[in-house]
Structures
1.
Amino acid sequence: MREIDKRTRVSRRTVLRGGAAAVPAAALASGGFVAAAISADAAWAQDASHLTPHTMASLVRMARDIYPHDHLADIYYVNAIKPYDAQAGGDAALRTMLEEGIARLDADSQNRHGVTYIGLAWEEQRVGVLRANEDTPFFKKVRSDLIVTLYNQKAVWPKFGYEGASADKGGYIHRGFNDIDWLSSV
Amino acid sequence: MANKFDQNDDSVVVIVGSGAGGGTLGNELAQKGVKVVILEAGKRHEIPDFINDEWASFAQLAWKDMRTTSGTWRVHKDFPNLPAWIVKSVGGSTVHWAGASLRFQPHEFKAKTTYGTLAGASLLDWPITLEEMEPYYAKAEYKMGTTGTNNIPRLPGNNNYKVLEAGARKIGYKEVHTGNMSINSQPRDGRGACQQIGFCFQGCKSGGKWSTLYTEIPKGEATGNLEVRPACMALHIEHDASGKVTGVVYADANGQHQRQKARIVAVAGNSIESPRLLLNSASSKYPDGMANSSGQVGRNYLRHMTGSVYAVFERPVHMYRGTTMAGIVRDEARLDTSRGFVGGYELETLSLGLPFMAAFLNPGAWGRPFTSALDDYANMAGLWIVGEDMPRETNRVTLDPVAKDQYGLPVASVHFDDHDNDVAMRNHAYKQGAAIYDAVGAVRTFPTPPYPSTHNMGTNRMSENPRDGVVNKYGQTHDIKNLFVSDGSQFTTGAACNPTLTIVSLAIRQADNMTAMMKRGEI
């Protein structure tokens, strides 16, 4: 059957500019271990105009912890969170909700583990902090927004094996609508 | 070419809504020489405008005006302002529907007699029988080009169907096929054959699927007897001192209030807006709303017992390729109370694209149990459950005491609680759906909760006795002889099948009876 090429299609240049970052110096300085390049030092966090770099980085970390897909690079989570910065510029209540929401995650994390939320090395620990906050309006908003801002990125669709629009390609009548080939073997 | 009728022309029939009921009734009347004005709240989006993109299409077509909800149904928690996923556009929900066109079984017109009295249910027999409906079902199937009827071949099965069929046969189901679908399996009636595009819910870009948008409505317009006014939201129905209706006040595209006079008004705005319009038409003569002397307007809201089962396999399925509702298992639609419930259910394939799967698989869920399911999206198959739900007086559409829409009118508030029978049936269906997929090697199955309602029925139900319902066997309101209801809100009970074929059949029948009444000078 015709299968989907799930390899990343964004250019290396895009990844370097948007997703990756220098060594997360702040995290290293504080003695924490950070597995990925999600850090307040990242260019996309430093570029934020209305939210602090720490809040941006924490929101991206939160996005990854809420909807973890190991086959998705950070760039897609950054893309999902980035619009909050501009929205916060025109919406003081949103800005407060996001800044205070992250501050509360950090406070919870400090109480439990002695480090900020983003400084927690294990996903299990970070998820524990999120679970304790999942009924807050802040968490609910971020989670429900992510359903659209993460999964409605056309660039992520092929990574899940979803092909998107088909009418412009003549539908699937000649492109595998009935090409399943393994049923007889089960 | 479409004519335009004068707003003071009181010889026209005004129909509110252009979907399966209103669009069909409009064309049927126009063909008989009756002048018709259809008021449609939505804009006119034609086939080239449709978008193969779930969220973008939702923004284009869905009814997103404010509504509120209450009750123990999970939709209230997950989608508190979206009780229904239906369409605000010319063609109504026939733009969005999957195409499944099933006739009721004989006993499903006699639910009260057949099922007896159930505590907490307001069961009633329809005032019509299958025998009376059969000629109209036949006309509807011919009109819509339903596969498996009129020597029209069934559609070829897609991957999602093949998984369903293989599993269903392994566990012993017999009545398994690609359905009775009003989707062209070969060119017919000036429309092409299905191209297996998928995106049936987003408007069919090949026109292979029947919709009033590009069948009934242009045919009616071609007679010169039908005018469709898009972006015209009916606000209330007016009446004279005798109580007869005289016209409809509506807001046009600019928000200006207009009045279209009428000889007859037919309400076909789907089962949430139709009772809302009647309730919003309250007057000193009709203080509880129009046609509501029984107090039944808005009650007995039906949405079908639904749910989905998705399953993940070791190898790819690509369920989204091809027709969304690509096949059916009918064995459980039978009447058999030994299963622990009355009524029955169908299992029909269903697929969602990745964006809607993320939104609907388990609303509110997060973390790896959820994302690991989506990681296997390409290896998923899925089915939807359509079962008969029990009518309940307390499941109802009312006017929200607080929330108002953009016209300043109270919005519809939808209350729903599952009946115990619905819960028992859903649990049975979840088990059977999972068994089908387990039989062909599913590694994981998901009993997925009901989506916002696509099948909305029952809120102006048909009854023999005016005390028990809102309309008679012709869809004519018991209270006002020139006021009709022409959509699924007429349904006395919901049966175990997708409602559109029955709505279309009732509209064809209503057109016959309405013109006969007009000729006899009764209305």
Note: Residues 13-519 of chain B form a domain with the FAD/NAD(P)-binding domain fold (CATH 3.50.50.60).
2.
Amino acid sequence: MIENIIAGFSSIFAVGPILAIISGIFIGITFGAIPGISAIMAIAIILPLTFYVDPIIGITMLLAVYKAGIYGGSISAILINTPGAAASFLTALDGYALTKKGQGLKALNVSLLSSVTGEALATLVLIFVAAPISVISLQAGPIEKVFLLLFAFTVIGSLSGDSIPRGLLSCALGMLFAMVGLSTITGASRFTFDIPQLIGGFTFTPMLIGVLVMPEVINVVKRRRIKQEVIRIGDSSRPEDNKFSFKEYKSVFPTILKSTGIGTFIGALPGLGSSTAAFIAYSEAKRTSKEPEKFGEGSVEGIASAESANNAVCGSSLIPMLTLSIPGDDVAALLMGAFLIHGLTPGPLIFTESPQIIYAIFAGFLLTDLFLFFIAKAGFRVFTKIASLKRYYIFPCVTVFAFTGAFTAGQNMYDVLVLIMFMVLGYSMRLVGLNPAVFIIGFILTPFLEQNLDQALAIVGNDYYLFFASPFSWVFTALAIFFVYSSFHIKKKIKKNIVLPADKAITKS
Amino acid sequence: MDRRKIDVIMASVLIVVGVIILKNDNLSVGGVESSLGSLFLPRIVALFIIGLSAIIGIQSLLKIRKKQIQEGDEIINLSGFLGVNLYVAIFIAYWFLTPYVGFLITTPVIMLSIAFLLGGRNWWIMIPVSIITAFVVFYGCRHFLRVFLPTWSLS
């Protein structure tokens, strides 16, 4: 493994990947900092640009956009109390309180250092844990994989949705849309209704942009009459209000470490995502803090816990994707799509089939943290200026990028039509409480399920009891039941503890 | 708007779709024999869709009948929806016009329409931005990505 890591670093230290990381960080922070644009939107828009470059450059750039985008979300949360994503809600709570006291720059510094520390530690866990897990998961045959995928569908559907039936329904709808077109197993054309364009199924990129990105643009259009706040860093005359000293960093380091652990663990479980990680880490930090009364009133510890936890999810959410072929959340689903487009199938085999690429990507992931720290630190004021641009300059450009991105997928206007249809579908899904991210995960995983189910049936023949002969079957069935049961409790607890103000939480929870 | 009513309509539609998938053999054409069959998984998914839709629909129907007070998520705020419809209409026009008028001409017009919809009136900046964006995207795609966006064609 060590040789692979060294080889990975040697591949990443080239002009192309480093330029990709730097531009990815710029794009990510800028998009993340703009209220109404999230990291996932940035990745989806950049995705088509990466089709035409080397996978190391393309995927490293997307990962840089992801990490920087998650961090960028905290800029608008801290400075104008507008979290770009639900995960930044707690950062806004304490960060904005500090901004009001004239300590906005300090809050930004706390957020940056906590984010980078959380991300870097979680990435190290990813590097050292993913390969050994993949060795175990290589032992799984088609029967085990079927149960694993059913477990993933159940967990993601029940934990990510607005309610359990709605989450599972979102997943089922995604599965249904995935089955449109030629069956990869039988060659039959399903649900095509004699429309030739449907034979190939729905193109992934336009569908993805339509379901995940465009509803966010529509949200901005819907809220267009709400006055746009100007993002500004309020400087304090006292130097200690503008910086986050090493002494202060040392004092909150145990909190960062614990929150990173929580974020890494939650991120590695499919379906929970960064919001849950941030909420749990924040509650835990508050519970064990010497000054719990400061939480919500401008606590440095509060920002550090929320930011390190939600950024730790970035690295660890790739663990289920790279070891079990299961994307843990919407961003992982999107990245899985990017891997597939680049000819890499995420899963245990990736470590034996393309070690040089995967370890180069890991090295790029670590390098991103370093660059993110310096670029963000040097450019606080530049990024806040860019994020303050009026929405009538930004969103027409986003529309053009979405249009071009959809067209790029197949160089035809049919894909743009797919984008429009899924834009309407994605927005309608949000209105009725269905989860578009779960829909995408259902869409991506269904071909794997169908293939493994077919192989499993061929193995068992008429002896259906063989499905339950493996201990894996029982373990995954039990885990699925446990997760559905525990998701009731998690949702109840989160609802009880935190009530998101509708006006501030721009995107989905 | 009451989301529970939409839930009932959505559930009814999805149940009908599910039943059609279960009953109609013509939804799959051609293909070879396999252990699984072409419509096995779609039908399993259809069963789930029927069951889950029924749960959502019945829950909402009961709440409507009991005249329960709507909770936060159950109210759909319709303010600003005219803008949403206009945005979708602009996007459809973008898709429809681009093959005839070309990307370079359609894009600035569409960008200006969206900017206007979002409250932009600063024409001296908006016009150059829209033209420059269209050119940069068009030639960027052509030279760096080898993607040829539609050009003017009335044929």
Note: Residues 104-137 of chain A form the longest helix (34 residues).
